[in-house]
Specification:
This protein has 101 residues and is α+β, with helices and mostly antiparallel strands. It contains 3 helices and 4 strands; from the N terminus they run ααββββα. 30% of the residues lie in helices and 31% in strands. Strands 1-2-3-4 form a 4-stranded antiparallel beta sheet. Strand 2 and strand 3 form a beta hairpin. The longest helix has 15 residues.
Length: 101
Amino acid sequence: MKRLAVLAFGLLPLAAHGQQVQCWLPYPGFEERIPHLDIARCPGDDPAPADGHCRIMLDRGDVLVYFFRNDPAAGMPCLVRILRQDFNSFVAMNGTTYREP
């Protein structure tokens, strides 16, 4: 968490000068620094596997799903959103079984 704050703080000067940041958190940085589990498809298939991917992490009683979308401008997948749900809500919405495509 501290690293993300440092990353965001380091990007503030770009935002202050009106420059648009294309990719706040590229997948390679996430992959090496954030503990996670790989999953073959995203909940709800959004994004579709051809357009991006998701990673999942359990944090006590919560499930965090990290959504990455392929960004042609950055030349790599970029984090576009994070879903945090308590485990029971996640299972109620997505079921208790998972089959890779």
